[in-house]
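Our preliminary data section would be incomplete without showing what the modeling component actually yields. Below, a chain of 276 amino acids is followed by its predicted structure, encoded as tokens that our downstream tools consume directly.
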Amino acid sequence: MKDRKFAPKGPRGRAKPFNRPGKSPGRPAWRDRDSHTDGPVILYGWHTVTMALQNPSRRIRKLTLTENAARRLAEENIETRVAPEIVRPQEIDRLLSPDAVHQGLLAEADPLPSPDIETLEQQGMVLVLDQITDPHNVGAILRSAAAFAVKAIVTTARHSPEATGVLAKAASGALELVPMVTVQNLARALTALNERGFQTVGLDSEGSEDLSEVALREPLALVLGAEGKGLRQLTRETCSVVARLDMPGEIKSLNVSNAAVLSLYVGASRLGLMKR
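Predicted structure:
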């Protein structure tokens, strides 16, 4: 790793290695969660790395720590699982972008497997993301999904950020708690959910009724579209209901991650999940 830096910018939210002058472009440092490669994902930050260390389904390949981080792990009885490399904070700074808050922990790990949509539990809630590409937003959505015990997040293989780097940091450990189902075609995935008894509710400002007035039932799939574009036409047509979030203030729209947490709260409250 000493010949490359990782920046949380690039196509599809992927961090890319900076190449030294005169070098040909390098291969991506890691791959999609759904891809069947041996490429590692990059995890940094206290919650992100410690949750990965405590997840038996996550294979850790390499762990780089500062002395302070190593001491804190020992004090909190968190096993490193692999022999860590102890470095100065500047060494981790050098491997990441200048704005990356790593707190002295950097890990390379295998991607987590992407479950099949047919294996999802037919209870509770799932979230479906229609081409939401900002890794900060998807990470924040993952964190909210973990807080509301969402069973899974369904996203597309293309036009979505990879489960690594910035997204993992924004999720603050939620990657280890909420399965991510990667599909090739979202309309077909929604059709499969409909056939399995899910109520698929798309969130759109042009929805026919407010979400709080929809007769919600389990299992519930809430479908969120990208900021600006919203839900694609075929996605809207495949949902069983298209609803809106009515706001009392002058601004009627929300950032997609905020819309996600509000819709999850409405869904969990209406389904009685808050009392479980």
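The radius of gyration is 20 Å. Residues 256-271 form the longest helix (16 residues). Preliminary results of this kind motivate Aim 1 of the renewal.
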